[in-house]
Amino acid sequence: MNKKIDVKMLVLDMDGTLLNKEHTISEKNKKYIQLAKERGVKVVLVSGRDVPALKNFSKILNLNEYIGAMNGAIVYDVKNEEIIGETYLRKEHVDKLFEISNNNNELLTLFKDNIIYASDKPNPFLEILNRFVKKPIISSENLSIYLKENNIYESLHKAAFIDEYENLKKLYDKIYNELKDELSLSFSLPFIMEIFRNDSNKMTAVQKIAELYNIDRENILAMGDGENDISMLEFAGHSVSPANCMPSVVKYVDEICTTNDRDAVAEIIKKYILV
């Protein structure tokens, strides 16, 4: 027998959860999201992706209310086309990340809106990221100077180091030991270690949106597959990860379902909402 959950808000991560390996939403997932909407459930997209990308997915799904972008750094009202919450990395954090990048010869990428900034040294993982997100990447030989000269340095939403997982794991330990009280670190993909403010994550975005809807956390069902989803998975009344999730996420969720390529979202909507 299915656990009885009064779901009023369904929170969905995008990559690895709602999106399949082709980075598209299946027809079955689309159909079941519409059925959830017809039951009065608020469907909320919360992702590391930027506002334009999430607005596009919202349009595909006929969703017209709130989204959480850039790992929660931006809460956006789609209907009224306005930002209702936004946080940036502090200058001292960006300074420190550049120092770490230089000392460890690791590629630092920085994100503002729908633009990615990176140094111009060759990196195969940056090419993969470019194909993955299909967003502009601006490169500069001296990135910190470029960002300062163009008044971008203090308006960055998040950062990421990009490399092989084993190298990033070593770097994670160095950064965590020094900055754990101020910054959150998580792997959205094995080659991407994202960095954002402790007080600005997917949980804070979900919490803000739930308050706007006047929905209690016990009535929230959240789905996600990556470490950057853990904060919102722990916050939700019930949490689910698809079977393709990162192994480190499993202990934080109530349930594992099928994979994103087998319509995990549709399966969970059928199980807990269409009952």
From TrEMBL:
GO molecular function: magnesium ion binding; phosphatase activity
Domain of life: Bacteria
This protein's record includes keyword Hydrolase: yes
Pfam families attached to this UniProt entry: Hydrolase_3
Keywords, sorted A to Z: Hydrolase
SUPFAM superfamilies, sorted: HAD-like
Coiled-coil residue spans: none
GO cellular component: cytosol
Assigned EC number: 3.1.3.-
Entry keyword Hydrolase: yes
The protein, known as: Cof-type HAD-IIB family hydrolase
